[in-house]
Amino acid sequence: MSCIVTIGEPFWGRRLGSAAAAAAVEYGFETLGLRKICASVLPSNDASARICLGLGMRREGRLRQHIEKWGEVHDLDLYGLLRDEWRGDDRAADAAVTG
């Protein structure tokens, strides 16, 4: 399952992307019972990266030369958020690090 959030330039700066992404994350975890939610962002898209980080997502890596868009090949940055992290329960993440 995937979800794409696109905000037209006349509406930039109104936090609509943040609100839409937050609603999608809540729906994914609360209604669909997902364990993890991922996002892929063009490295040049600072606004989308800020939205991901603002949701508590962690940058997990970069897929090099992964997609073609606008006639050019682009990398994609990957972000992820686990259900336990979203709930504020970082014990699962801490256990994986200290493991």
Strand segment tally: 3
How many DSSP H or I helices?
4
Domain count: 1
Main β-sheet description: 3 strands, antiparallel
Q: What is the CATH first-level class name?
A: Alpha Beta
Determine the fraction of residues in helical runs and give it as a percent range: 25-40%
Output mean pLDDT: 87
Radius of gyration: 15 Å
Strand content: 25-35%
* Straight-line N-to-C gap: 31 Å
CATH superfamily: Gcn5-related N-acetyltransferase (GNAT)
Question: Can you walk through the features of this model?
Answer:
It is a single chain. Helices cover 37% and strands 29% of the residues. A 3-stranded antiparallel sheet has the order 1-3-2. The protein has one domain (13-98): Gcn5-related N-acetyltransferase (GNAT) (Aminopeptidase), CATH 3.40.630. The longest helix has 16 residues, at 16-31. It has helices at residues 16-31, 46-54, 83-86, 91-98; strands at 36-41, 58-69, 72-82. The protein has 4 helices and 3 strands. Mean pLDDT is 87; it is low at 91-99. The chain is an alpha+beta fold. It starts with 15 loop residues before the first helix and ends with a helix.
Task: List strands and helices in order, with pairings.
Elements: H1 16-31, E1 36-41, H2 46-54, E2 58-69, E3 72-82, H3 83-86, H4 91-98
Antiparallel strand pairs: 1-3, 2-3
Key features?
3-stranded antiparallel beta sheet, alpha+beta, 99 residues, Aminopeptidase, single chain, 4 helices
Task: Describe what is shown at a glance.
With 99 residues, the protein is α+β, with helices and mostly antiparallel strands. It is built from 4 helices and 3 strands. Strands 1-3-2 form a 3-stranded antiparallel β-sheet.
